[in-house]
Amino acid sequence: MTPITEVEGRRLALSNLEKVLYPATGFTKGEVLHYYATTADVLLPHLRDRPVSFLRYPDGPDGQVFFTKNVPPGTPEWVTTAEVPRSEGPARMVLVQDLPSLMWAANLVTEFHTHQWVAEAPGAADRLVFDLDPGTPATIVECCEVALWLRERLAVDGIEAYAKTSGSKGLHLLAAVRGSSSDQVSEYAKGLAMEAEKAMPRLALHRMTRSLRPGKVFVDWSQNAARKTTATPYTLRARPEPWVSAPVTWSEVEECRSPDRLAFTAPDLAPRIQDYGDLLAPLLAQDRAGTLPRS
Length: 295
Hints:
By secondary structure, this protein is an alpha+beta fold. It has helices at residues 29-47, 99-107, 140-156, 182-199, 250-255, 266-276; strands at residues 4-7, 10-13, 20-22, 27-28, 51-56, 66-68, 81-84, 91-95, 110-114, 124-134, 161-165, 171-181, 204-205, 217-220, 230-231, 247-248.
């Protein structure tokens, strides 16, 4: 019988707790749920009010991996949902607003991916994101070099950037913005990616062309488009080990000389949160959001 757990007054059926989802380490579904329960205080503010796309991997990263954007069948009636625009017509998506909703979603075994806007203002960007993706033999070490350049360039325009690992090979750069549409942020980000390529032609690349990417860092500006989503801070990833998209300090970025220095798994996060709190908390403060320069 599936055990029933009560979370803040909501009854949840949490299934297959002993199932190993990450065979390389023996990390189980129960440990996945424990991870999300213990990181909820820092994770939930980055999910709240944002339509969530679920990248599900119910049999682990070696099994079937698939996106679920619409409200999944069987979603409890108490889980908040919102209608969001899409090119093919309006759709309804989940909002993970509280701990019960988080634990219900985590029981699906999923990565959390969110837009750069909130449900009440679709297309009005409140985030700017760069996904720095290294082409072999480049690694996150080279991503750090590009991130530092972008940080300084954004600062020139009064925009404060923060970093997190992608939870895979690369690095994400995030900034809070206001007063611009997703299209405007995309165009601005593309311009900075082009500047980065011009400033560091042997290292940075703003084009996705596969043949150009070996040994370089692709500065993916396209995730600022209103339809796109990015891995949420603190989400577990469907990778061989329970890697996390983990916030990092700029000192860690500056001092990174080996990819292992910025590879964090679920057990690493509790002590990091105890030491640092939420390194991305400034993204949630409207008074710290930057505005794009007007051309």
